[in-house]
Amino acid sequence: MWKALLKFQRRSKLTLWKFSAPILIFLTIANGGWTQVDRLALVVGNRPVTLSEVRAWVYLQSGECLSEPLKTADRKQINRMIAAEKLYQVGTQFGKFKFQPQALRQALRVVDSNRGFRLLDSGYLQRCHISLPLLEEVLRRELVVQHYIRSRSGSVKPGADTLTVLASGLKPDVLVVNLLFQENPAKNTSDSGPLQSEKH
Question: Are residues 61 and 77 in contact, defined by beta-carbon separation less than 8 angstroms?
């Protein structure tokens, strides 16, 4: 009886392999044998920022997908993201801000309802190449930045853009490497190449 059971198990494993191997080969070929790799977009301080994070940040702020190639409005949003990243790094130097996952989801629903129930539409998220966990992480960082801004907004003149004023006044400044586009300080214009996710 025991020998018969072992023989059956060997046969069933062999049959399973016969059916699963062609399926795995087909899926590999259908995917082109490529694995999607997220592109490095920015380095703010010592933190690399991926293109997916930039997409999620722009989406959270404007409700729009990041365009390819970059438009002027997208470049402005990315510059604001750089400023926010600087303030985040300064704001977390002396401690970490922890948010419960439930509180983050609730905050995301509040933002979503203020934007006309658009942000959490799964089809729109997919079209913009954004995952919900990444959107939650970007919102968490944004909440830390907003806390930092509120604690120091008294030093900013009324009517000024508090985010950019506080970020530009940091001493020492946080080093930024922008791999999406280069700023030309003389003309205040920027050049951009097409944004594409790299494949390896």
Answer: yes
Instruction: Report strand pairing: 36-37 vs 47-50.
Output: unpaired
How far apart are alpha carbons 53 and 37 in whole angstroms? Answer: 13
Mean pLDDT in residue range 41-51: 93
- Judge if the upstream peptide bond of residue 172 is cis by omega within 30 degrees of 0: yes
Closest CA to 147 of 99, 80, 76: 99
- With cut-offs at 50, 70 and 90, classify the pLDDT of residue 34: very low
Which residue shows structure tokens 């930092």? 148
**120 burial via Cβ count (<10 Å: 0-12, 13-18, 19+):** middle
Are 174 and 86 a contacting pair, CB within 8 Å? Answer: yes
Could you tell me the pTM of the whole model?
0.69
Structural element, H or E, at residue 52: helix 51-62
CA distance linking residue 131 with residue 134, whole number of Å: 5
Of the candidates 92, 98, 95, 83, which has an alpha carbon nearest to the alpha carbon of residue 148? Answer: 92
> Is residue 74 classed as helix, strand or coil in its secondary structure?
helix
CA-CA-CA-CA torsion sign (126, 132, 137, 143)? positive
Structure tokens given for 128: 């913009």
